[in-house]
Amino acid sequence: MTWWQRLWHRRKLDEELEKELQFHLNQYAAELTARGCDPQEARRQARLALGGLEQAKENCRDARGTGWFEDVAQDFQHAVRTFRREPRFALSAIFAIAVGVGATTMVFSVIYNGLLRPFPYKDAARLTTFSVHDLQGADVQGIGRGDRGGFTSAELLTFQQESRSFEDIIGFMSKDVSLSNNLGTQQVHAALVTPNTFQSLGVEPLLGRNIIPEDAKPGQPPVFAVNYKLWQQHFDADPKIVGTRFVVGGVPMTLIAIMPPRFQINPEGCDIWIPTIPNPSDAGISTNAAEPMHFWWPLGHLRPGLNPKAESADLNLAAQRLAKTFPKLYPPRFTMVTRHFVDVVIGNFRSMLYALAGAVGLLLLITCTSVANLLLARATTREREIAIRASIGASRGRLIRQLVLESFVLGSAGALLGCVFAYWGLKAFLLVLPGGLLPAEAVMSLNPVVLLFALGVTIVTASVCGALPAIHSTRDDLCSRLASGSKGVGGDVRGGKLRAALVMSEVALSIVLLIGAGLMTRTLFALTHVNLLFNPSHILVTQLSFPGGVSRTATEKKLFFEQVLQRVTASGGVIAAATTASLPPYGGPGSDVDVTGGSNAEQSRVQIDLCSAGLFRTVGIRLLRGRLLSQGEIASAQRVVVVDETLAHSFFGDRDAVGQKIRFKVFDLIPDAPHNTYFEVVGVVNSIKNRGLRDSPAPQAYLPYTTFGTPDGNVLVRTSGDPLLMAKTVQQAIQSVDRNVSLTETGSLQSYLQRFDYASPEFGVATFAAFAGIGLVLASVGIFGLLAYIVSIQTHEIGVRLALGARQSSILAMTLRKGMRLVVAGILIGVLGSHYLTRFLASQIWGVSSTDIFTFVVVVIVVMVVGILACLVPAYRAAKVDPLVALHYE
Amino acid sequence: MTPIPRSDLPQGTLDLLILKVIALGPVHGYAIARRLEEVSRGVVQVPEGSLYPALHRLENRGLLAADWKETETGRDAKFYRLTRKGRKHLEGEAASWQRLIDAVGLILAMAEGGGG
After folding, report:
1. Could you tell me if A1 lies within 8 Å of chain B, comparing CB atoms?
2. pLDDT at residue A624 above 90?
């Protein structure tokens, strides 16, 4: 019989044991009786020989090896019974554990699913991308020349063939195309992918067959795969769609696969995937250097066990040769750098996730402390029970085991509730989480790994919470405790010191969380109050995309925008309208420049915007010297440029910039841009923020939008009223000029700021504030609980004092002082700790020092006030003690 | 009647004796106790309190198996018998016990004052 069977059949085994021993006794007694013994006496002797029936049974049960388990089961039942008797205590402990375990589990789920295992692809941990890193790097103004992560077909093919450090390299490229079948036509985001993509990533399609490299071979019928979402939304999840014919971007193609929901590749998202062999003769130069849409983005599985040096050495070799063939594509001094795919997608948000993990860790500590505190409080009131149990033979180990088991019972209940909290918390988290910060492939869920983590956290929590009070309350000899009949007379509060220390740490930990939340709030405030150097309100933004993703020539663009702007400006409520390539506070792609009559020092990089004449009025940029771009200059695409004062100052110093000439080197890379051409500076305007909210303005140049063609554009409209009310008018104007132009996004400039610049700090504030708030509540409950307990056991002493003539106010002050001493000590420790800990938040805070005095002071005041409130109720109760009742109390 | 001097059982020998008694044929607990007493001529008295735990321990280790059968007096009793594993164990233990006894006997038979 195995251990399990013995445990399972223990009832039956007990019965058999009883029967067996009874048989033994009967036989023995019968024998003794036969020898002439009195039957009664015979049975007694038989039992005596056996050493007592119950004792023998117990020994036999021990032989089964299941005894300890039965003990634990008994302790468990005992624990459940005691908690039923004290529901208020049990519920608050369970709730606190649930909050700690739930919050920790939630954050772990986000980190695990979003950062550690976001991709459903084969060997996703080794998925790596690479880019060309300019070693001359950032200039004085802080504009990096930027890394180039996109490559031309020729480059991609070279890397695919020559890189030994990658097992395989795939490439993808965004392209907007029209997708039509007999039911209709729509614009979709496509990703051209190298034919090896699907095999390399190892994802099977939901429906249809996988795309294999042979599918893209010349002469094979063209095929493509569709995104799950598009399939659901536009094809009503019809499985029969697989195998049907479409026309994609003018080419007949067969849909052969529906990909599962988590298949994505392109971090910006796409609707369909078209296997395409890179064409080595394709120059692949984009007109928009910020979004080089004609570049292939590489992604590959790095061979296991390589160090970063070996990776880049291998890529460098190929890149150096490419730099000789395509000198314009490479900066003079560069190196290849590799980055894990997940880093590319998550970027700076990683440090926010780590900050969150830290915060939730602190919160978990607070919950542990407060549960330990609760258990300790309970243990002190149970002293006599424990002492009695010890005196009737329970060993210290057994007592500790029982107390720890009690905390495990609480822990299990807390963990269950915590998983419910985590489930809903995760939903709330995803609501406040701005889009695009985590990989689109990531699915936030409570999967087995996350649940296992929750279990681990619970076990640690329960052990920490349970062991401390258990060891503490079984420490002393029991005589003294049995002897001291009442609980802690004379102010000798048993466990008081330990409990005080716990409460102090709770206060200190919540201080740290609150200061973190405070700094985040200050950051958000600073960001929303940044002076953009222009007024962002009353500006409507419409982003549009020309049909088929085809780049429009300068002339086509002119014909289109001239009419659109005319119609928009003519409508009522519009003050000014303009087209621009980039949306403030971003100033467009950068370029190295040559200038005449100025210094071509280190800071030779400027940001370029292609705009119409109305931009200055629309955004509110003021002319300082010279003149603005004129309608005529724009219509005839004159080689003129308006620069901002930062540019004028950095390149021309005190000399007048007007009349000087600038050559933009990036244009040499763009086929239909004017090569080797100097633009004459006609005017100087004031600088506005052009590198986002956080950085100071960089040199900026405004060129006529007719300088060369682009695949897309924006229309900015300054309105007299609510900009959103004008959205329809602007859309109609655009559609009436060209029905094929699609509007990708429309909204107020402020909503753009909200989405791209405020959303992430807002998220930080929301999560930190939630954690800090919970922490503060737990800490104040801890203060309240401890003080109430002290008052309750000192009722007698207070009664004596009052009877001897102490005033109520002095009792109140005395109790308050007792509580506030802890609060103040906690505050001091917390402030000191924050001073060191907030530096880990440095990447998340901006515009405020990580040791901002204002934040520290406000937090200290808040905690003081909360502390006083928490102390006030017990203190008031102490002052209201009736001496008579108190003296009769014991 | 002079009481027969009794010896305490050395550690671990109880199991061996029990196994040996059972090796003679299926037998119930009470009979084991009596037989041990008889065979050892009263020298070895098994403390009955430890007989049953020992039986159960041996059963759990798979050295013994048990069946409920009727005794000749028509009562249900738990009869123990040796398993194959138990028999092997008994042989091993008995041999090792024999070696020990021989060795101890040799040492005790040494002539005093000799040697050294």
Report:
1. yes
2. yes
Tokens at A279, concatenated: 């064409």
Closest CA to A741 of A544, A553, A540: A544
Residue with tokens 């002797």: A45
Summarize pLDDT for A464-481 with one digit per residue, the tens: 777 777 777 776 655 555
φ and ψ of A581, to 5 deg: -80, -25
Write the DSSP assignment of A107-131 as a string of letters.
Answer: HHHHHIIIIIS---STTGGGEEEEE
Calculate ∠ Cα A872-A874-A876, nearest 5°: 65
Phi, psi of A819 (to 5 degrees): -70, -45
C-alpha A726/C-alpha A128 separation (Å) is 45
* CB-based contact A228:A440 (threshold 8 Å): no
Question: What mean pLDDT is predicted for residues A614-639?
Answer: 92
Which CB contacts under 8 angstroms, 24+ apart, belong to A166-169?
A166/A128, A166/A300, A166/A301, A166/A302, A166/A303, A167/A126, A167/A300, A167/A301, A167/A302, A167/A303, A168/A196, A168/A200, A168/A300, A168/A301, A169/A194, A169/A298, A169/A299, A169/A300
Q: How far apart are the CA of A397 and the nearest CA of chain B, in angstroms?
A: 25
d(CA A151, CA A194): 13
Q: Which two tokens stand for residue A332?
A: 């003079």
Q: Of all residues in chain B, what percent are helix, strand and coil, respectively (each to 5)?
A: 50, 15, 35
Pairwise CA distance, residues A728 & A821, whole Å: 63
Encode A354-417 in three state secondary structure: HHHHHHHHHHHHHHHHHHHHHHHHHHHHCHHHHHHHHHCCCCHHHHHHHHHHHHHHHHHHHHHH
Identify the CA nearest to A699 among candidates A653, A662, A640, A649: A649
For residues A712-730, give the mean pLDDT. Answer: 89
What are the tokens at A814? 């005395």
Residue B25 contacts A where some CB pair is shorter than 8 Å: no
Interface contact flag, A24 B30, Cβ < 8 Å? yes
Phi then psi for A716, rounded to 5 degrees? -110, 135
Q: Which residue has the tokens 């039992």?
A: A47
On whether any CB of chain B is under 8 Å from the CB of A653, the answer is no
Nearest by Cα to A265 from A308, A233, A225, A306: A225
Q: Report ipTM for this prediction.
A: 0.84
| Chain-chain contact of A26 with B52 (C-beta, under 8 angstroms) | no
Which of A301, A409, A439 has its CA nearest to residue A82?
A: A409
A190, A249 Cβ separation under 8 angstroms: yes
By CA distance, what is A56's nearest residue in B? B49
Rg (CA), chain A: 38
Q: Is the pLDDT of residue A292 over 80?
A: no
Q: What is the dihedral sign for C-alpha A364, A380, A68, B11?
A: positive
Assess whether pLDDT exceeds 80 at residue A238: yes
Residue A22 in contact with partner chain B when CB distance is under 8 A: no
A449 conformational bin, left if phi > 0, alpha if psi -120 to 50, beta if neither: alpha
Enter the tokens of residue A787.
């003080």
State phi, psi for A66 to the nearest 5 degrees.
Answer: -110, 5
- DSSP tag of A848: S
Q: What is the pLDDT of residues A788-809, one digit of tens each?
A: 888 887 888 888 888 888 888 9
For residue B52, give the nearest of A6, A52, A56 by CB distance: A56
* Candidates A28, A51, A65; nearest CB to B30: A28
